[in-house]
Structure formats: C-alpha cells, structure tokens
Amino acid sequence: MSWFKRKEKNIVNGQKKNLPDNLWKKCSCGEILYIPELENNLSICHHCGFHFPYQLNDYISILFDSNPRRICSNIISTDLLNFKANKSYQEILDSSDKSSEAVESYFGEIDSKEVVVALMNFKFIGGSMGSAVGEILTQSIIYAKGKKCPLIILCQSGGARMQEGAMSLMQLAKVSAYLKQFSDSGGLYISILTYPTTGGVTASFGMQADITFAEPKSLIGFAGQRVIKQTTQQDLPEGFQTAEFLLEKGFIDQVVDRKTLKKQLSKTIDLLS
C-alpha cells in the first residue's frame, strides 16, 4: 500500500496570496454574489431580483439623458438646537461630505422631456429628513412649478432626523402643503420608493404622488416590524412592508425594475403631462 504514501516530499510552502476584500455579497435569498458582476447588473440580484440600495450618482446616470444641472446646492444642514448625545450633531455634520445633502435636486431631461428630480441620499445620515431636506424639496417643487415640468422624488430614507427634533417633523407639513399647491396648479408628481423608505418620508411626500412606483422587494413602511408586532400583539403577514405587498393592498401603483425605470417614467410623463 505504498502508493498511499509519498516517498519523496517535494512540497514547497509558498506565500499565501492575499485576495482583495469586499468581492462578495450575500443576498437575502441566500445567493452569494460577485460584487463586480452585481454592479454591472445595476446592483440587482440575478437570482431573486432584489434591488440593493443604489447610489445617488448611479441614479443620475440611468435616469437623465445627459448631465443635469443641480439646483438648491447652497442649502445645507445646521445644528439649530445645539443637539448633543453620544456624539454632537455638529460633529456628525462636520464628518459628512460637505458637497452633498440627504437630498439633492436636479433639473434635466428624460427622453428630451424636462423634469425636476430630487434624489434622496442614504449615505448622508441615513437619508434622514431635516430642515435642509424640507427646504430643498420645497424649492424643487417651486422650481418645477415655474418650469411647468413634472416633479420626481426618489425616496431612500430612514425617516425624520432626531437631532433636529420638532423642526424635522415640521417638514412633513411644509412639503405636503407645497405639493398640494403644485397639484392644484396642474403639476405632475411621481414618487419612486426604494430600499428603504421609512418613517416620516413614508408618512408624507413618499405616498402623496399622482403616481407611486417602487423598486422590487423594497422595504417600505412607517414603524419597524418589531414595534408594530409589539403594539398590535399580532403576527405580521408574509412579505409585510415589501413593495409587492403594498402593490397588492393598493398603496402603490406599480413595481418597476431599475433597468426599465427611465422608460416607465418617460411613458408616464407622456400619458399624464
């Protein structure tokens, strides 16, 4: 049985190769995804169709015909209440990207049709809604009204920003009032709900559009499932707070794949403008 054993051991112990980090990502369906391939597929799981959160600049590239013009870029968040907890609000703002906000607004064209598009930025303090967000959205509504063009808001937010207290909650009423004026003037407002859309954003402008789209399998809701379950003392149905569940219950109009989002927006604008 000598063939089970090596008579001569000519084994060279080479150095272990270091593989790059962050090459793989696990989807909620259990599929292990190669990140470069995932990015080439617009951050959509090829197995189950789950739409991973997309970056603001990526949405700009897939929605607009060419480079749009940013508006309201001079509006920034400030520490109005001198809020301090484990880390002061001012420290959080100082460590954030100074060139961005939790929402950025752009004027450009989708299939040669002029639009104002406000894109929420989850990388900026979780896309939370503070006074700056409310003011940027308000000015975007006014701008769209002046240009007589459709308004599109892409939502991606954890809700109201606690560091601004009641000031952040006041933005719900402020933006809602201006949306009502925009609607009364005949303006078309389209909302796009992405993963995640929660809290005060869902409770206000996220659900007040003429047409409401959502990306597949997006998390959409007001309170968290654990809080709802504890409050109601009931088991939640399967798929609760997903885009597909909300479509079934009539809360949104259509679930739209990211790959066809621009085409669907263009078609909707043609039909309703």
How many distinct folded domains? 2
| Number of E-state strands | 9
Give the CATH topology of the largest domain: 2-enoyl-CoA Hydratase, Chain A, domain 1
CATH homology superfamily of the largest domain: 2-enoyl-CoA Hydratase, Chain A, domain 1
Q: What percentage of residues falls in helices of 4 or more residues?
A: 25-40%
Question: Helix and strand layout, with pairings?
Answer:
Blueprint: E1 24-26, E2 32-34, H1 35-40, H2 56-63, E3 69-71, H3 89-95, E4 103-110, E5 113-120, H4 131-147, E6 151-157, H5 166-184, E7 189-197, H6 199-202, E8 211-214, H7 225-232, H8 243-248, E9 254-255, H9 261-272
Parallel strand pairs: 5-6, 6-7, 7-8, 8-9
Antiparallel strand pairs: 1-2, 3-4, 4-5
What does this protein look like?
The chain has 273 residues and is α/β, with parallel strands linked by helices. The protein has 2 domains: 22-52, no CATH class; 53-272, 2-enoyl-CoA Hydratase, Chain A, domain 1, CATH 3.90.226. It is 32% helix and 17% strand. It has helices spanning 35-40, 56-63, 89-95, 131-147, 166-184, 199-202, 225-232, 243-248, 261-272; strands at 24-26, 32-34, 69-71, 103-110, 113-120, 151-157, 189-197, 211-214, 254-255. The chain has a 7-stranded mixed β-sheet, with helices on both faces. Strands 1-2 form a two-stranded antiparallel ribbon. Helix 4 (131-147) runs parallel beside helix 5. It is globular. The termini are far apart.
